[in-house]
Design goal:
The complex is a heterodimer of chains A (115) and B (109).
Chain A lengths: L3 E4 L2 E4 L5 E7 L5 E7 L5 E9 L2 E4 L6 E3 L9 E3 L8 E12 L6 E2 L3 E5 L1
Parallel strand pairs in A: 2-11
Antiparallel strand pairs in A: 1-3, 3-8, 4-5, 4-9, 5-6, 7-8, 9-10, 9-11
Chain B lengths: L3 E4 L2 E5 L4 E7 L5 E7 L5 E6 L3 E5 L2 E6 L4 E6 L8 E8 L7 E2 L3 E6 L1
The chains are: A mainly beta (115), B mainly beta (109).
Chain lengths: 115, 109
């Protein structure tokens, strides 16, 4: 199993450009989520999904869209990139959601710079 | 979501030393996890521990759910233990896992 795979690893955007960060997992996990990590602020939840067709907002959802058409994939879309979105983005998944004994597994992250 | 406080923010250890990291929660948690972020940025799940005590090699964790805190113990620290340790939690019926700001551990040879 590859686990949680994120692409690309690095990306540089100009202000106003759009892009999609890809996330795929091969563990048949129901729960998937996106976090951003900024220095000194830990990880902050952007969006999450408890199954195909179901998504919800996290702590910092503005400027980001998600969809969950399949169990495996959970892409994160930046509609119009802003310098404030410069961050490291992590995708994570969990087998039975957060309500059961199922640890969260992270991808290796995408480092995004918006100039 | 719940608020998570971690202490200390930074910890410098000599190789072989023991240490304790603490995590406090603003509300009762149904889900509590500890993670290690290595110097290359990878996040590894260490423990899923909403209550009780677990051990994995030189690491162990204890959660006292009624008092809303969890402790992570590192014994006989090694340089490979360096990195940032995060705890995270969510309350019952909440799918939002909240992270603390982390404890940066530096182990010197």
């Amino acid at each position: 199993n590859a686990g949680v795979t994120q692409t690309p690893k690095f990306q540089v955007l100009k202000t106003g450009q759009s892009m999609t960060l890809q996330c795929a997992q091969d563990m048949n996990h129901e729960y998937m989520s996106w976090y951003r990590q900024d220095p000194g602020m830990g990880l902050r939840l952007i969006h999450y999904s408890v199954g195909a067709g179901i998504t919800d907002q996290g702590e910092v959802p503005n400027g980001y869209n998600v969809s969950r058409s399949t169990t495996e994939d959970f892409p994160l879309r930046l509609l119009s990139a802003a310098p404030s979105q410069t961050s490291v983005y992590f995708c994570a998944s969990s087998g039975q959601g957060l309500q059961y004994n199922s640890p969260l597994h992270f991808g290796n992250g995408t480092r995004l710079t918006v100039t | 979501g719940i608020q998570v406080e971690q202490s200390p923010p930074d910890l410098i250890l000599q190789e072989g030393a023991n240490s304790t990291l603490r995590c406090n929660f603003s509300d009762s948690v149904n889900n509590l996890q500890w993670f290690h972020q290595n110097p290359w940025g990878q996040l590894i799940n260490l423990f899923y521990i909403p209550s009780g005590t677990k051990q994995n090699g030189r690491l162990s964790a204890t959660t006292v759910a009624t008092e809303r805190y969890s402790l992570l113990y590192i014994s006989s620290s090694q340089t490979t233990d360096s990195g940032v340790y995060f705890c995270a939690g969510s309350s019952r019926n909440d799918y939002k896992l909240s992270f603390g700001a982390g404890t940066t551990v530096t182990v010197r040879a």
